[in-house]
Design brief:
Layout: H1 2-74, H2 81-103, H3 109-178, E1 183-191, E2 206-213, E3 222-231, E4 243-246, E5 249-252, E6 255-261, E7 266-273, E8 281-289, E9 292-301
Antiparallel strand pairs: 1-2, 2-7, 3-6, 3-8, 4-5, 8-9
Helix pairs in contact: 1-2, 1-3, 2-3
């Protein structure tokens, strides 16, 4: 009986021991599981932090690329207004993308892909602008070179034309001068009332100026008016106040004669009736026709 009682406590102790061992094993397993879970959570947290850092770096890299691209767009320069408007529009688009990217909170792969596609598109557009600007610059250089050539040609042609005009003017002047009817054999006679020549000019009441209009094939035929000017020693012309135009000025004349010139020698006499007495000195005779001075001579009145 006593042996049975002694065996019963032993069995109870064994059972308790086994339970304790089981509990300890469970605790050990639980601690191991918890440790593993903590390690896994720490590892996951590290991965998440690393991923966040990568995302931040990728976001900043993308932002920097957009900023660099904006700087590249700023360097584009052209005198083409239409192209400048397009460049400004694309720059505003890049600035909008940068602001949008700065405001993104849940940055992910799809968002990154969207901005990378935008970036690639903007770079492609920029390459197109660079090509257009280069083409325009080349065209402008070509146009400038052609313009210089045109200006040089124009200047050369102008010089040639000026020379032609100058020569034409000289030729026209030569022809004009050659077409002027000249006079020859200008003579002066002093007449009395009966148109008889007198030896003493102071006794004359009329002056007769004789001359010949010389033949000239280059001159025009037709009616002509010849003006006579008799200029006293004091510089005043003998006149009754009538004038004619010469070199855009009206000057007085002494007498005139209308004739018909037929490109042949023509003898002419013009008379001036004295209304005053002679004064001593040199008297100049001038003959005008068709706006030209065609002959000159003089006579002297002695004291």
């Amino acid at each position: 009986m006593e042996d049975l009682q002694e065996k019963q406590p032993v069995k109870n102790n064994d059972k308790t021991t086994k339970i304790l061992i089981a509990l300890i094993s469970v605790m050990i397993i639980a601690i191991g599981v918890m440790g593993y879970m903590l390690y896994d959570m720490k590892k996951l947290n590290t991965q998440m932090m690393s991923k966040n850092q990568e995302v931040t770096i990728e976001k900043e890299t993308l932002k920097r690329q957009l900023t660099d691209l904006l700087d590249d767009y700023d360097e584009l320069s052209t005198s083409n207004d239409s192209l400048n408007s397009e460049i400004i529009r694309e720059k505003e688009h890049i600035q909008t993308l940068i602001k949008e990217l700065e405001g993104v909170r849940n940055y992910n792969y799809s968002i990154q892909k969207k901005y990378e596609e935008e970036l690639a598109s903007l770079r492609k557009i920029m390459r197109g602008y660079v090509y257009q600007i280069d083409s325009l610059d080349q065209l402008n250089k070509q146009l400038i070179a052609e313009n210089v050539q045109v200006k040089q040609a124009h200047s050369r042609i102008k010089d040639e034309m000026d020379l032609v005009v100058e020569r034409n003017d000289e030729l026209e002047l030569a022809i004009e001068e050659a077409s002027i009817v000249k006079t020859a054999g200008i003579g002066v006679k002093f007449l009395n009332k009966k148109n008889k020549e007198v030896n003493k000019p102071k006794r004359a009441e009329r002056i007769q100026v004789n001359f010949t209009l010389v033949s000239n094939d280059l001159a025009e035929s037709g009616a002509r008016r010849i003006y006579l000017r008799i200029i006293r020693p004091d510089g005043y012309a003998l006149t009754d106040g009538n004038t004619f135009e010469f070199r855009e000025k009206n000057i007085v004349y002494s007498a005139y004669r209308d004739v018909t010139y037929e490109k042949q020698d023509l003898g002419v006499a013009i008379y001036y009736d004295m209304a005053e007495t002679f004064i001593p000195g040199k008297y100049n005779i001038e003959l005008y026709m068709s706006g030209n001075l065609i002959g000159q001579t003089f006579f002297t009145i002695e004291k």
